[in-house]
Each structure stands twice: as structure tokens, then as C-alpha cells.
Amino acid sequence: MSTKLPRFSVLVLLTLLFAIPAAAQKHRAVRKSPPEGQQITLTINGTVLDATTNAPVSSVEVRAGSKLSYSGADGKFRVKDVLGFGSVKVTFERSGYVLKTETITSGGTQDLTFRLTPTPTVRVRKTNDTTFDLDSESVKFGYVLTFGGYAEATFDEFCKADGSQVTLDRAQMKKITGPATKVAQSNCCENPELMKINVQLKTNETFDAVFKDSCFGYRVDLIGREHVSGNFAYIPFFDIAEVVFP
User: Fold this and answer.
1) Domain count of the chain?
2) 170-174 LR contacts (CB < 8 Å, sep 24+)
3) Residue 95: pLDDT above 90?
């Protein structure tokens, strides 16, 4: 019996024998291919400034590659030994400022200054006539819990004098006039510690309103990050003469 393979079968076999190593070599090449660009190692000694006032900006979250840092009261920060391939993206984020991204394409130790564009702020005037600005995005209403800790009011709910309840987004508000006064009852609830303020909307509608959270005995505070210091402030509405929204 002849042991010769048909000519067609021989061609198929040879094709498979050459194709398998080539495919394996291609797979290995794809798997081992290095990232694009030359590897760089970067250390940044940086300063973050307000683009309008040129003042240092504190509490800015700085991300460079996989490294994280925060600017201090003097606006300075440092990130060491950041690895990148071709370039490193550096992002700067804080309430009260527009998110900023910079791309750095060279390695080594660099002393750099970055300027952030401020966003509109909320002006607060206390009953002692001191004034300061809060980052608009950070402003919330909150209260101290009975057994300790601080809670943010889930909804900005108010009771109007006619008994209706209204939930207001702070973007709807133009001004809050205080200080808050204590009333024993409203058409929504009764409590000797109810807190009443005057609210003016951007539509210029003005009305007296009771904080719904005060129905449960909570003292409502205004919470927000002070724009200049970067610290969070907790101000009782009893101590606030006026809040002006942008």
C-alpha cells in the first residue's frame, strides 16, 4: 500500500506548520509591547494661585499620575517620583474653582506655578457685621445630631406662612435675611424651637419660612467652605444677618 499523502494534503499540512509559529510570535509581540512614549519620572514642587487675586489657594486636591497631594495654606504642594510615558496629566480640583488639567511632557524636578479660575461665591454677613465668602458649590444646610456628629439636611424643606411646604434648591435663592427667630408653631408643625427666616427667590418672590428640620428640634446651620481660608464653616442661622447667593 502506498504511504504517500495526496499532494493537496501535503500543502495544507505545510501551511498549518508555518502559520502556528507565526501566530504565536504575533501574540507574544502584542502582549509584550511597551506603553507608547518614553518613560519619565517627575517631581513637582508646585504653588497654586487664584487667577484673579493672585492669592495662594489652599486645600486643592492635586492628582499627578497615580500620586495625590493637597495644597497648604501657602498654596504649595509636592508630588514625588511620578511615573509617566511620554507625559503626565496633573489635575487641580477644589470647590470655588474651575477644574484645571495640565500636561507635563518632561521629567526631573520642576518648580511650577498653577493658576485656578474662581467661580461665583456666596456672601455671608453675620450679626456682628463680619463678612466672608463661601464656595457656592459647598453651601449646605445641616444640624448637630442628638448623640453627636453632624448631618446634612437631605432636603431644603420649608413651611410657608400659609401652611404650604416647599422644597427649594439653593440655585433658586437670591437672599436669606436673618437672624433666625424662634416661633412656637407654624401651619406645618409645633415646636418651641422652630426657626423662621425670610427667603427671597431669584423670581423676587419673598416670604417668611420655617426650616422643616426645626420641627424635629434641630438647630439648622449654614455649612460651607470659606473661599479664602479653605476651611469649612458651620454658622448657626441665629448668628446670620444675611446670605446673598450669586
Assistant:
1) 2
2) 170/139, 170/245, 171/245, 172/201, 172/202, 173/199, 173/200, 173/201, 173/202, 173/243, 173/245, 174/200, 174/201, 174/202, 174/204, 174/244, 174/245
3) yes
